[in-house]
Amino acid sequence: MTMRLDYLSIFPGYFDVLDISLLGKAVDNGLVEVHAHDLRDWTHDRHRTVDDTPCGGGAGMVMKPDPWGEAFDGIIGIEPDPSVHVIFPTPSGIPFTQSAAQELSTVERVVFCCGRYEGIDHRVIDYARTMWTVHELSLGDYVLNGGEVAALAITEAVVRLIPGFMGNPESLAEESFSPGQERLLEYPLFTRPVSWRGMDVPEVLMSGHHGRIAEWRREESLLLTRDRRPDLTD
Question: Binding residue per annotation — 143?
Answer without folding.
Answer: yes
